[in-house]
Amino acid sequence: MAHVALIDYGSGNLRSAEKALARAAIESSTGHSIIVTDDPAVARAAERIVLPGVGAFADCMRGLNALPGMVEALKEAVLQSGVPFLGICVGMQLMAEVGREFGDHRGLGWIEGDVVRMEPSDPSLKIPHMGWNELRIARAHAVFADLAPGAHAYFVHSFVMRPKHFNEIIVTADHGGSFAAAVGRDNIVGMQFHPEKSQELGLALLSNFLRWRP
After folding, report:
1. Distance (Å, rounded) from C-alpha 214 to C-alpha 209?
2. How many folded domains does the chain comprise?
């Protein structure tokens, strides 16, 4: 049975993500098993990899680096072997080159660009950005196939990724200004929102990810 490695590095909504992925595997009939793991060997052998993340960029990157061999295993699996990869919330942000939260901190560098604090044009809009927000497709992508106009997803964040290349932005949302709600290239995709908290929409996107053949 093909398995999805859900990376446990001490910074993620693991239980909710595990349950949502397991349900998506059933609903999409892909047959995937979901394995929560901090073992680089399990990540390296996975058919797909999901990196969640909650909290500060530097703390999350520190937690990932604290797992001996994990960053190297992810690089080998994702960048060299082409394993489909999904980053969620800070897990998406870690794909950037630099996170600029409480100083500058190096990310994985898989997506050129940085992560910066949200600065809404309307000062009455609160940060963190928390709640449901409309997703707007910037370019076609299999993971977002059949996304209905006006579809909303659930966000909780204060920082956003700012990709260098516009064509790596898949979905945008607006909170006093447009920002990247999903990014991707090749076999890599990231969601700033939480699909595991986005009800039927989130399950549909996770199902699409499990079926995706980049």
Report:
1. 10
2. 1
